Amino acid sequence: MIRTERFSCSQAQAALLTRLPTPEDITKTIGLTEPEIETIVSTSGIPAGSFPIRYLGLPLNTRKLSLANCEPLLQQIKSKINSWTSKYLSFAGRQVLISTVIGGITNFWSGAFILPKECINLIDKMCNAFLWKGTLEGKYVARVAWEKVTTPRQNGGLGLRNLALWNRTSTIYELWWERNERMHQGKYRSTDSLWKRIKSMIKNKISALRPENNTAASAILQFWFSLDETS
């Protein structure tokens, strides 16, 4: 059981009515004070846990994502590339696998986090080596700079994804979702509805700062709520 919102005692009691707790259940919170956590734990009877944890394959932490947190992502990509090394793929075949399979793996993480620059550099390095040499072992000579490889085809590149740029873009989830709904489903949300959702996401992001810097986060929240009242 994971709790990331503010709960009153009555809410914690109501949560227990949904199902009986199991020995594997733990309560994890973000942005709550110690008395609030103690109230939830004593009311629910479910012990408190600590971060970091893994949820749906992604690391959850109260701090900024580190390179160590990204090790499962790097190992997954390395494992995929190593499994292709013995298949004697053509240059075009390797290009397709980087675009589709590696792109799909990084999409899952990019939609949830801003990846550390060191992690992005390591992924680019592995993809570059696999593209030009077909393996991660030994030295290789890239005939074209990676910056050019990730340039759109109409501009003379190979059209592979610029991971750093894609990562920044994909974290703007609500705008990306709205774009896809309009393009593929013909569905539209009003500007007010979209803006309210974006403001809610920003508040949640600010609230997540509290475990690291409660004073700064509280000040930012007060400022943001004051903007909300006047908007």
TrEMBL record:
Top-rank taxon: Eukaryota
Protein name in UniProt: (rape) hypothetical protein
Organism: Brassica napus (Rape)
